[in-house]
Sequence to fold (337 residues):
Amino acid sequence: MKVTLIGIDLAKNVFQVCGVNQACKSVFNRALRRHQLMAFLAQYPDVIIAMEACSGSNYWGRSLKAQGYQVRLIPPQHVKPFVKGNKNDRNDAFAICEAAHRPNIQFVEPRTLEQVDMMLAHRIRERQVDARTTLINQIRGLLNEYGIVIAQGKESLKAALPDLIEDAENELTERARVHFTLLHQEWSAINEAIKSSEKDIKQQAQASEGAKLLMQIKGIGEITATAVVSFAGNGSSYKNGRHFSANIGLVPKEHSSGGKQSLGGITKRGNRYLRKLLIQCAWSIIRHCKTAQDRLSVWVKTLIERRGSHKSAVALANKLARIVWAILFKKTEFRAV
Fold:
């Protein structure tokens, strides 16, 4: 039986490789070591290769495409319904083959090295920002044990902390002052690390044609532009702007039956990080829309009068997502008026 598709369950060292024929009947399903994979696949030069879009899939996708294979990366949530019986590597590899045969499955393009570099910087910065937030919350909680409460905002705490450590009138003990000094130094080190990551992101934005086009859109800066490029590439994986917007969870969820349509809040599916950035971009436009006269600001201004600022922010983020896709896909400049 001729093998037409091979599904690979990726791992660090031992991969499960399943080959099926045109009827999706298993021909082989075996484990291979990492160094054996490419030599084994060379026996099947005309097959389609399917993998889950997981850690390492971008590397293998790029490598296999360079060898002339057609590669299909499948989001894991689309593979899970096809796993039959208990979860194991054999069943997972066969489930990948079954999912790849379905006509309505949306496949993912492997990220380029440029996209991976951008994603790397964003993931590191996101972890650093989360670490800083955790540290600030801990400092506030520990200060409260000594009866010290500081106004909201990280800048208020940062400005007050050195004075609190030096103030002999408060209830901080000598040991506590030593610990808070170390926490303050840790905070400063995290701030420097975040600045370094943001500097790298800005340099990548200036070197990317797609990011430079996106930064012409009102409200979108280097961080959002590079995050979009790292996630969507040139936009060719999406049918249209609504498809891209739906992919990041900015369209209403539906619960309709009996011919009666029922829409709710946004689905919140897909890339949470990118959705958050686009909503922050929308809020930056809303804050200055009263005095602005460009078409986007006028549109959101009239929407706020009817629906309020919070719903308008989500609607504007949805609109920005569609504009972003159009600019990436068509490679055109943004026209504000």
